[in-house]
Amino acid sequence: MQLECKECHRTLSLPDDKVPVGRPFAFSCPYCKQKNTALIPGPEAPEPGADPASPAEAPHYKATAAAPPQPLRASTDSEGDSLAKAMKDETDLQSVLSEAVDDRPKAMVVFDDPEVQELIVQKLEDGGYKAMAALNPRDAAKQLKFATFSLLILQENYCGATLHGNLLLRSLQTIDISSRRGMLVILVSPEMTSLDDLTAFGLSIDAIVNIADIESIDRLLVSIMARAQKFYAIYREILAEHGLD
Fold first, then answer.
1. Reading across the β-sheet that carries 24-28, which strands appear in turn?
2. Contact 4, 11 (CB under 8 A)
3. 67 CB-near residues (< 8 Å, 6+ apart)
4. How far apart are CA 167 and CA 134, in angstroms?
5. Average pLDDT of the segment spanning 204-217
6. CATH classification at residue 170
7. What is the Cα–Cα distance from 167 to 57, expressed in whole angstroms?
8. Are residues 97 and 163 in the same domain?
9. How far is the C-alpha of 209 from the C-alpha of 188, rounded, in Å?
10. Which of 86-100, 144-158, 224-238 shows the lowest per-residue confidence on average (mean pLDDT)?
11. Domain containing residue 9
C-alpha cells in the first residue's frame, strides 16, 4: 500500500497489515514532518473508480492535512479503549515509516558494560550502521526474533553467562538459515584470541574479538567483513545462479 504526503507529495510504501483499515488515522511524514491523516476503505467499501478485474498492485492513497486538536472531554470506557488502540496503531505505523526511510544496515550490541556498549554503538554509527543496544537478555532475544540485523556484536559472558551457557549465542542456531547467513556475528571474549577463525567456525559465528582489542573494533570489523565476504563468495554465487539471492 502507498500513502502520499499532503505537503511534500513523497510516496511512502507500507505493508498492508500495518495500516488501519476502515477508520481515519494520523501519521507524520518522515521526510518533511508534516502531520497527515488518511482513511483506507475496507473490503466492503472499495475505493471509488476501482476496477475489481484489474491486476492487483499496491493501492495509492493521498493523505490530507491533519485537523487541529479538539478540546478534551470526558470519554466512556469504550471510547477510551478505541483511543488507546488508535494511539498504538499510530505509534506502530510511525515506527514502520521511520524504518522505511532509514536504509542503513542494522546492528545490535549485546554488552552489559554501559561504557563499552556506548563505545561500540558509537563506532558502528560512525561506520554507517543504525546501531542499537539491547536492554537486557529478554530484549535481545525479542529483537533477534522479530528484527533483521546485518551485524550482531555479543559479549561472551553477557550478564554472567559462560561460553556454552550463553543462551543468546545458542539461540542463533534456531534462526532461519537465510536470515542467519545475512547476519555477521562477532563474539567479544575475555580470553579468546581476536580473529581466531578456527575457533569462530567451531562456535558457528563469524569472528571473535578479544575485549582487549575492543577500542579497535571499527578497524577489525573491516577485516572481518572482508573475510566473511570471501568465505561466502561461492555460496552466494550459487544462490545467484538459482535466483535465490
1. 24-28, 35-39, 64-65
2. yes
3. 37
4. 14
5. 94
6. 3.40.50.2300
7. 43
8. no
9. 5
10. 86-100
11. 2-101
